[in-house]
């Protein structure tokens, strides 16, 4: 396997997601138990269940990631700041927030910069990882480049392709573009539509260092089976 990728190493690149609107406490508990068993890097959830998932994962090193202003990004900076601070206080180790694409389309770049600076500053102070979700399916090439340029100034930990709730998800082309623009200054997370091992490997080859998916178990098991077949 390329890069000597093991199931354990791959699991530590996966943000296992459960972002549906109709999840019970029992569902969250089972999800967290499974995520701990596979030792994923993070569980990606909406901000409301952060506290309960932190409790479910207290005996593991799996991070709890809160999705902020998800999935549209259409809340004010002040609202995003409040949601971010609350999620961190309740146990979030990582923050994935959605950019306000309306203000980007309006070319209100000062707003986009202030939004990013506000959230990244809170995360940095708290020792929490920050990820900026672009939602590339709605963006032009120029808009993607603009967001990468602002990110290089602000320095979030990651920039991320998609929410998985838009009209399109991650593409290798977008991952390569984002990585080419930010280099080693910022990491890239691919998310949206990654449901099998080959797609995940394609994103990693393109430069992604995290994979957001609800199919983490399937992907890791596919790798395990492939390695077993090769030996």
From TrEMBL:
Matches recorded under InterPro entries: Aldolase_TIM (IPR013785), DeoC (IPR011343), DeoC/FbaB/LacD_aldolase (IPR002915), DeoC_typeI (IPR028581)
Organism taxonomic ancestry: Bacteria, Bacillati, Bacillota, Clostridia, Lachnospirales
Its EC number(s): 4.1.2.4
Name of this chain's protein: Deoxyribose-phosphate aldolase
Compartments where located: Cytoplasm
Family: Belongs to the DeoC/FbaB aldolase family. DeoC type 1 subfamily.
Segment forming the signal sequence: none
Pfam families the UniProt entry points to: DeoC (PF01791)
Physiological role: Catalyzes a reversible aldol reaction between acetaldehyde and D-glyceraldehyde 3-phosphate to generate 2-deoxy-D-ribose 5-phosphate.
Species annotation: Blautia parvula
Primary site of residence: cytoplasm
Reaction catalysis annotation: 2-deoxy-D-ribose 5-phosphate = D-glyceraldehyde 3-phosphate + acetaldehyde
CDD domains membership: DeoC
Pathway in which the depicted protein is active: Carbohydrate degradation; 2-deoxy-D-ribose 1-phosphate degradation; D-glyceraldehyde 3-phosphate and acetaldehyde from 2-deoxy-alpha-D-ribose 1-phosphate: step 2/2
Active site per the UniProt annotation: 96 (proton donor/acceptor), 160 (schiff-base intermediate with acetaldehyde), 189 (proton donor/acceptor)
The entry's keywords: Cytoplasm, Lyase, Schiff base
């Amino acid at each position: 396997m390329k890069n000597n990728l093991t199931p354990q190493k791959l699991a530590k690149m996966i943000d296992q997601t459960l972002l549906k609107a109709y999840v019970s406490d029992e569902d969250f508990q089972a999800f967290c138990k499974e995520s701990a068993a596979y030792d994923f890097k993070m569980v990606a959830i909406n901000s409301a269940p952060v506290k309960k998932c932190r409790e479910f994962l207290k005996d593991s090193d799996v991070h709890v990631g809160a999705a902020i202003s998800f999935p549209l990004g259409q809340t004010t900076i002040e609202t995003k700041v409040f949601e971010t601070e609350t999620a961190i206080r309740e146990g979030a180790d990582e923050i994935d927030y959605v950019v306000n694409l309306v203000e980007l389309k309006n070319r209100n770049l000062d707003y986009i910069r202030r939004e990013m600076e506000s959230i990244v500053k809170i995360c940095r102070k708290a020792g929490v990882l920050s990820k900026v979700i672009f939602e590339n399916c709605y963006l032009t090439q120029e808009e993607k480049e603009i967001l990468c340029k602002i990110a290089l100034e602000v320095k979030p930990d990651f920039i991320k392709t998609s929410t998985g709730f838009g009209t399109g998800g991650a593409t290798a082309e977008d991952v390569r573009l984002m990585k080419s623009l930010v280099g080693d200054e910022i990491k890239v997370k691919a998310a949206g539509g990654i449901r099998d091992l080959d797609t995940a490997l394609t994103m990693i080859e393109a430069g992604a260092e995290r994979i957001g998916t609800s199919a983490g178990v399937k992907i890791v098991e596919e790798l395990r089976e492939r390695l077993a077949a090769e030996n």
